[in-house]
Amino acid sequence: MSAPRPDLTIEGLGKRFGATVALEDVDLRVPGGSLVCFVGPSGCGKTTLLRVIAGLETPSEGRVLLGERDLTHVPVHRRDVGMVFQSYALFPHLSVAENVAYGLRIRGVAKRERLTRAQELLQLVQLPDVDSKRVSQLSGGMRQRVAMARALALDPALFLLDEPLSALDAKLREGMQVELRRLQRRVGITTIIVTHDQEEAMTMADLVVVMGDNRVQQVGPPLDIYRRPVNRFVAGFVGTNNFLPARVVEAGLVEVAGVRSPVAPDATLPSAGSELTVAIRPESLRLRQRAPASAALEGTVVFVRDLGRVVETRVRVREHELIVSGRGGFGEGESVWVELPEAGVMPLAS
Ligand SMILES: Nc1ncnc2c1ncn2[C@@H]1O[C@H](COP(=O)(O)OP(=O)(O)O)[C@@H](O)[C@H]1O
Ligand SMILES: [Mg+2]
Questions:
Q1: Which terminal residue of the chain, N or C, has fewer Cβ atoms less than 10 Å from its own Cβ?
Q2: Alpha helices, DSSP H, located in the chain
């Protein structure tokens, strides 16, 4: 067994470019050997955070530690990181194997040994039999695998990828998400992947770091983030949600669009009478022809979108429009009852 991989710790990190605040108050722990995704809208600071971890940017304040070792002022070439960018940044005049072995050559590894190692790495990224080809002969997906093999050649302590799949078309991207996840499991290297695509993050990550407004908004396993978003931003960014205004009736109970509904059992509520927003996932709502015994809202179907494996029905309830996903069976203009989730609605802090 190899030695356990150290955790990466970010403490009180901030980064400004002149008057622009790129990152504020970032505290984060990336467990050794895990795959973590930084996700958030454009401009929220994902790339900057990755570059600070890599040593390509110096933070304005705060520290970066790998295990006990303070990396904050260690230059990039001493940090033991392998990086992959959206653009492959391969050497077009070199063969695939020479690209993969490039770092080994710089380290002075003998030719035979580095070509053997390049073959192993190409196997690892599932690209055998292309080692003598030129990079220009490969497709985009293949080039990105070569870039990954090259980044892994020196067995880095950290494997950092910035939007590595965003240049690929949708079908290929989905396949590569699964492959990248499996590759990371095989090599066990602590990996951080930046993406603006929340589904991509949910597919690959052990831990998702949701960023917004140049801060970390929430950190957690994908399902926790999905089920228990800490605020309105996360609830709206990850997956689809319905938002409704509500008022607290008593402990565990709110009134939503004139109807009383329990809140999720582990959720906390402000005092009775407080106004707040609740989030309800489309798949947790049910459409009924008649009023059910449980909490339900009366409305009218305004739009139906049949996606084959699921039907998305939009229902007007008072001045709100709710998305319900499920089996469908209701046509536009029909009156329906939207049954609220038995497990309760999710109150949001802000
Ligand atoms: N080198 C730079 N000089 C000036 N501003 C920058 C620089 N790099 C990033 N920024 C700014 O910092 C913020 C965060 O950018 P970035 O980390 O690239 O976000 P993301 O990767 O999430 O899209 C943005 O407002 C961006 O314009
Ligand atoms: Mg970026």
A1: N
A2: 46-54, 96-100, 102-106, 111-124, 140-152, 170-187, 198-204, 222-227, 232-237
